[in-house]
Design goal:
The protein is mostly helical and 172 residues long. Helices cover 68% and strands 0% of the residues. The chain has one domain: Serine Threonine Protein Phosphatase 5, Tetratricopeptide repeat (Alpha Horseshoe), CATH 1.25.40.10.
């Protein structure tokens, strides 16, 4: 695994484990998730995710991305991170950034990865999570041409949340 791949894998898992607070209707699913009972967590969280709850969506995405109940399913992870990101959810944006940077379920795309991580960084308060995202942006920028970097910045500035605002390619 390359230095960048290891960095992004660790970043994604660390933020997923630390992310999100319990809200009404999610408590049981998040309790199962935090206890490592991912099968029960998925059964509780998926209906919430399907009804549009972004916190549930990012946890469902993480279960699929990291293969916590079966083999990883990157297509499902992308779908759920995308739905959360449409709602301007920082964890959904980070999830998409990590998956694009690693080529999980999509072709590696540093422009898309940078766009999503830049959006997340702009919404995070000062602190260790934001610092990790800034570090990821620096790693990505090292591998990008000036044109790619400017395109990613432009795309991030132009992006607006809302239904249909995340256009994911067909999962590979």
């Amino acid at each position: 695994m390359t230095r960048a791949a290891a960095f992004f894998a660790a970043l994604g898992l660390a933020l997923l484990v630390a992310g999100g607070t319990a809200r009404a209707g999610l408590d049981e699913g998040l309790d199962y998730y935090n206890k490592g009972d991912y099968f029960r967590a998925l059964s509780e969280l998926k209906p919430e995710a399907e009804s549009g709850n972004a916190i549930a969506q990012i946890h469902v995405a993480g279960i699929y991305q990291y293969g916590l109940i079966s083999a990883a399913n990157f297509g499902e992870a992308l779908k759920w991170y995308g739905r959360a990101a449409e709602q301007d959810n920082v964890d959904g944006q980070i999830g998409l950034g990590v998956m694009y940077s690693l080529g999980q379920g999509v072709e590696k795309d540093p422009v898309e990865a940078y766009k999503w991580l830049r959006l997340a960084a702009s919404r995070l308060p000062q602190g260790s999570d934001r610092s990790r995202i800034i570090g990821a942006l620096d790693v990505l920028a090292e591998s990008m041409s000036d044109e790619e970097l400017q395109e990613a910045i432009r795309l991030a500035k132009e992006w607006k949340p809302g239904p249909g605002s995340v256009n994911l390619p067909s999962a590979r």
